[in-house]
Amino acid sequence: MIVMICLDDKGGMRFHDRRQSQDRILRQRMKEIVKDAKVFMNETSEKLYQEFQNRVVCKDFLEKAGENDYCLVEDQSLLPLEKEIKKIIIFWWNKIYPADMFFDLSLDQWQLVETKEFEGSSHQITEEIYIKGERE
Questions:
Q1: How far apart are CA 84 and CA 29, in angstroms?
Q2: Structure pTM?
Q3: Are 97 and 21 contacting, i.e. CB atoms less than 8 angstroms apart?
Q4: In order along the chain (136 residues), what is the average pLDDT of each group of 10 residues?
Q5: DSSP label at 108?
Q6: In the 8-state DSSP scheme, what is residue 95?
Q7: Distance between CA 62 and CA 39 in Å, rounded?
Q8: Helix (H) or strand (E) holding 131
Q9: Are strands 99-102 and 55-57 parallel, antiparallel or unpaired?
Q10: Residue 102: what pLDDT?
Q11: Would you state the pLDDT for residue 135?
């Protein structure tokens, strides 16, 4: 699976039970990345990501996603499924929030292959793409 996730500078995924990914320009960027591919997500994410035509919404979306399917992760642990992940796309918020849920994977076994910066609707966002393999 291919994971898309939004994080603050300390790896926070959620703060005060709110998602990191409410930026509309970020959602447009995600749509450019996935094109017509399936995007698996849970019901919490679906409320904000209605514009994704090929979304698959279910509670166990991480287990159901195939090798080349995208998964939008906002409030899930990834550690139990790390072996199933072939690519991670992280959108760094470049801010620190008082997070109450954190990204639980170490990126030590992942190779950074691409970095982009773009202006979101409220601030600068850094996009990083990782694939399996030792960091250079």
A1: 24
A2: 0.93
A3: no
A4: 95 81 88 95 91 94 96 95 96 88 94 96 94 73
A5: G
A6: S
A7: 11
A8: strand 124-132
A9: unpaired
A10: 93
A11: 57
